[in-house]
């Protein structure tokens, strides 16, 4: 194999589903499936020991479900990215997954190509939401925050440099690092540094939270996201 190998952990209580995901991923030379889990306890344990870059996480599993497993995996920081995969197109799952720290959310009725692309997106440190899911996140969160937090939010935003503010606006539009680099005439490494500083200054976990923050606090206003938007 040439280049970096993306290590993937599969979590689903249906053996046939895990087998299907494995077959799809292993058609690609840059993927390696490093483990399978049938419940939340097992996936949390393997996430800590198998060294995955990305976890494909089902929501409904026996015992500890996928949402709680995601919370445990992401709580300490520095662990693998979690891609939620579910049959159920439900807003409560979507919002709970984002709050739990998931970096992406896809429905299982998507194409193999969409799954492969999503794993690569998360492995390089981006977050992913389908455009229709981004619109639903914006619809839920694009409203003024609690009155008591206004001053703190303003102070956070005031810490951003003009360039960092531009990057936050681009993130809210669903742009990837490569797209931001092109739009702002910067190198991708520079963009990655700006993104990291934006997240740190605003106290955010990932790019998806940056999208929510930008709309919730009026940095940008709801409008059509980019096609193929990544939160």
UniProtKB/TrEMBL annotation:
PROSITE patterns reported in the protein's UniProt record: HTH_LUXR_1 (PS00622), HTH_LUXR_2 (PS50043), RESPONSE_REGULATORY (PS50110)
Alphabetical list of Pfam families matching this protein: GerE, Response_reg
CDD domains the record matches: LuxR_C_like (cd06170), REC_NarL-like (cd17535)
SMART domains: HTH_LUXR, REC
Domain spans labelled Response regulatory: 7-123
Entry keywords, A to Z: DNA-binding, Phosphoprotein, Transcription, Transcription regulation
Record PTM 4-aspartylphosphate, positions in chain: 58
Highest taxon listed in the record's lineage: Bacteria
Matching Gene3D superfamilies: 3.40.50.2300
Name assigned to this protein: Response regulator transcription factor
HTH luxR-type domain: residues covered: 153-218
